[in-house]
Amino acid sequence: MTIDMDKIVTKTVCEAKKVAKKASETANEAIVYTKNQIDRAAIRDQINEYYKKLGKLYYSEYSGSVSASEIRACKEKLDELFIALKATDNGAPAIGCKVCGFCNAKNKLDNVYCAKCGEKL
Ligand SMILES: [Zn+2]
Question: Could you list the residue range(s) of the whole structural domain that residue 41 is in?
Protein backbone atom coordinates (compact mmCIF):
# COMPACT_ATOMS: atom_id res chain seq x y z
CA MET A 1 0.00 0.00 0.00
CA THR A 2 1.35 3.38 -0.96
CA ILE A 3 0.65 6.59 0.82
CA ASP A 4 -0.70 9.22 -1.48
CA MET A 5 1.06 12.30 -0.11
CA ASP A 6 -0.63 14.64 -2.55
CA LYS A 7 -4.01 13.52 -1.36
CA ILE A 8 -3.02 13.98 2.30
CA VAL A 9 -1.58 17.43 1.66
CA THR A 10 -4.62 18.49 -0.36
CA LYS A 11 -6.92 17.23 2.37
CA THR A 12 -4.94 19.02 5.10
CA VAL A 13 -4.90 22.30 3.15
CA CYS A 14 -8.61 21.95 2.55
CA GLU A 15 -9.28 21.41 6.28
CA ALA A 16 -7.04 24.35 7.16
CA LYS A 17 -8.93 26.56 4.72
CA LYS A 18 -12.23 25.53 6.30
CA VAL A 19 -10.95 26.37 9.78
CA ALA A 20 -9.60 29.73 8.56
CA LYS A 21 -12.90 30.51 6.83
CA LYS A 22 -14.87 29.66 9.97
CA ALA A 23 -12.55 31.81 12.11
CA SER A 24 -12.91 34.70 9.69
CA GLU A 25 -16.70 34.38 9.70
CA THR A 26 -16.75 34.37 13.49
CA ALA A 27 -14.51 37.45 13.55
CA ASN A 28 -16.79 39.23 11.08
CA GLU A 29 -19.83 38.40 13.19
CA ALA A 30 -18.04 39.82 16.22
CA ILE A 31 -17.21 43.00 14.31
CA VAL A 32 -20.81 43.41 13.12
CA TYR A 33 -22.05 42.83 16.66
CA THR A 34 -19.60 45.36 18.11
CA LYS A 35 -20.53 47.90 15.43
CA ASN A 36 -24.18 47.34 16.30
CA GLN A 37 -23.54 47.95 19.99
CA ILE A 38 -21.59 51.13 19.21
CA ASP A 39 -24.31 52.38 16.87
CA ARG A 40 -27.04 51.69 19.43
CA ALA A 41 -25.09 53.47 22.15
CA ALA A 42 -24.58 56.46 19.83
CA ILE A 43 -28.29 56.57 19.00
CA ARG A 44 -29.23 56.32 22.69
CA ASP A 45 -26.82 59.17 23.49
CA GLN A 46 -28.51 61.28 20.84
CA ILE A 47 -31.96 60.38 22.16
CA ASN A 48 -30.90 61.50 25.64
CA GLU A 49 -29.48 64.69 24.16
CA TYR A 50 -32.72 65.47 22.33
CA TYR A 51 -34.82 64.67 25.39
CA LYS A 52 -32.76 67.19 27.34
CA LYS A 53 -33.17 69.69 24.52
CA LEU A 54 -36.91 69.06 24.39
CA GLY A 55 -37.17 69.52 28.15
CA LYS A 56 -35.35 72.84 27.93
CA LEU A 57 -37.55 73.94 25.03
CA TYR A 58 -40.73 73.15 26.96
CA TYR A 59 -39.37 74.94 30.00
CA SER A 60 -38.43 77.99 27.93
CA GLU A 61 -41.81 77.94 26.24
CA TYR A 62 -43.31 79.51 29.39
CA SER A 63 -41.30 82.64 28.73
CA GLY A 64 -42.54 82.66 25.13
CA SER A 65 -39.04 82.63 23.69
CA VAL A 66 -39.41 79.29 21.92
CA SER A 67 -41.21 78.78 18.64
CA ALA A 68 -43.52 75.82 18.12
CA SER A 69 -41.47 74.80 15.09
CA GLU A 70 -38.36 74.36 17.26
CA ILE A 71 -40.26 71.96 19.51
CA ARG A 72 -41.73 70.16 16.51
CA ALA A 73 -38.27 69.79 14.93
CA CYS A 74 -36.94 68.32 18.17
CA LYS A 75 -39.83 65.84 18.39
CA GLU A 76 -39.33 64.83 14.77
CA LYS A 77 -35.63 64.24 15.42
CA LEU A 78 -36.55 62.03 18.38
CA ASP A 79 -39.00 60.02 16.21
CA GLU A 80 -36.23 59.60 13.65
CA LEU A 81 -33.78 58.38 16.32
CA PHE A 82 -36.27 55.87 17.72
CA ILE A 83 -36.77 54.48 14.20
CA ALA A 84 -32.98 54.25 13.79
CA LEU A 85 -32.69 52.46 17.15
CA LYS A 86 -35.47 50.03 16.20
CA ALA A 87 -33.67 49.29 12.91
CA THR A 88 -30.64 48.04 14.88
CA ASP A 89 -32.74 45.62 17.00
CA ASN A 90 -31.82 42.74 14.69
CA GLY A 91 -28.12 43.13 15.54
CA ALA A 92 -27.15 44.87 12.32
CA PRO A 93 -25.12 48.06 12.34
CA ALA A 94 -27.17 51.23 11.91
CA ILE A 95 -27.69 51.95 8.25
CA GLY A 96 -29.06 55.40 8.88
CA CYS A 97 -27.01 58.52 8.56
CA LYS A 98 -27.25 62.18 9.42
CA VAL A 99 -27.73 64.42 6.44
CA CYS A 100 -26.06 67.80 6.77
CA GLY A 101 -28.63 70.61 6.65
CA PHE A 102 -26.07 72.88 5.03
CA CYS A 103 -24.38 70.82 2.29
CA ASN A 104 -26.58 67.66 2.26
CA ALA A 105 -23.55 65.40 2.82
CA LYS A 106 -24.28 62.07 4.49
CA ASN A 107 -22.55 61.67 7.83
CA LYS A 108 -22.17 58.82 10.28
CA LEU A 109 -24.82 58.75 13.02
CA ASP A 110 -22.36 59.56 15.77
CA ASN A 111 -20.86 62.58 13.97
CA VAL A 112 -21.57 65.84 15.75
CA TYR A 113 -20.21 67.98 12.91
CA CYS A 114 -20.46 67.45 9.15
CA ALA A 115 -17.36 65.68 7.83
CA LYS A 116 -17.58 67.67 4.59
CA CYS A 117 -18.31 71.25 5.61
CA GLY A 118 -17.99 71.28 9.41
CA GLU A 119 -21.57 72.43 10.05
CA LYS A 120 -23.04 71.26 13.38
CA LEU A 121 -25.40 68.35 12.69
ZN1 LIG B 1 -22.15 69.73 5.55
Answer: 5-90
Number of domains observed in the structure of the chain: 1
Distance from the alpha carbon of residue 108 to the mean position of ligand 1, in angstroms? 12
Three-class secondary structure assignment of 4-22: CHHHHHHHHHHHHHHHHHH
Helical (H) or strand (E) element with 99: strand 98-99
Query: Residue 99 falls within a domain, yes or no?
Result: no
This model's pTM is above 0.70: no
Q: Is residue 34 in some structural domain?
A: yes
Residue 107 lies in a domain: no
pLDDT in tens, 32-79: 788 888 888 989 999 999 999 999 998 888 777 788 888 999 999 999
Q: In this structure, is residue 32 part of a structural domain?
A: yes
Quick: pLDDT tens for 9-20.
888 888 888 888
Closest by Cα among 81, 82, 54 to 70? 54
Residues, CB within 5 angstroms of ligand 1 (ion): 100, 102-103, 105, 114, 116-117, 119
